[in-house]
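Submission sheet (multi-component)
Chains listed below:
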Amino acid sequence: MKEDFDNEMKLEFISKSSNEAFARAALAAFAAQLDPTIEELSDIKTAVSEAVTNCIIHGYENKQGIVKIMARLKEDEIIIEISDKGKGIENIDMAKEPLYTTKPNLERSGMGFTIMESFMDTMEIESIVGLGTKITMSKKIKPKNQEEEDNEFQMITKQ
Amino acid sequence: METKFYEKDKLLVLKITEEIDDHNVKKIRGKADYEIERYMPKKVILDFDSVTFMDSAGIGLIIGRYKFAKIIGAKLEVANLSKNVQRIFEMSGILKLVPIWDVSQLDILSN
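Outcome: structure written.
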């Protein structure tokens, strides 16, 4: 049977905040196969960082659990699933509201979902209270024209 | 974080050198508040020149330092925002409270 994607990876780690940097770096390395611009890569890293942070501080509330990531490449698109088996979200509409946070005392801004939505092309939340949350995000990597590629090459070679 | 205090202008420049996420922000927050309390400046500049990554933890960091600076009567401004950092701050509306500092002023000060 032939799968309907070009590549796939899975990643599992315990819910320690030091793994946030690991997760976004790993996803950036995987996404690099689609030849994204530095900006597109930065968008993906930011969205992944937001989703993983949510699993750790909201899903598991800093108790130990497992964060799972599955990513697929299909033509020019990356699809990323990030899930936890934590407490779940009671009101998804409210959680998506900009500046809404259940943890203002931790200096959380309530902008996580807003950032995921605007940095990726699509973002979906599935959540069951007491069972966990799964975020599915996708982003198409735009084909680059020659001029952009030349500019980027110059930027890299200058460094 | 690198700290520079300009005594004459009571200006404290805090240059953040870490990636700003939920993990690192606790450390950055503690150090920034410690330096603000130590120097009691009139103005605090958070310099983002060496920040290679920032997510929404950066918004909380700014709001928290804005409040802390206000308590001691200091103003907070931000400098050297990359495109990505600026976009995140703009989405939150925080730049209405915390202006972007013109870095060219720094040359005048250090001379």
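Remark: The longest strand of chain A covers residues 66-74.
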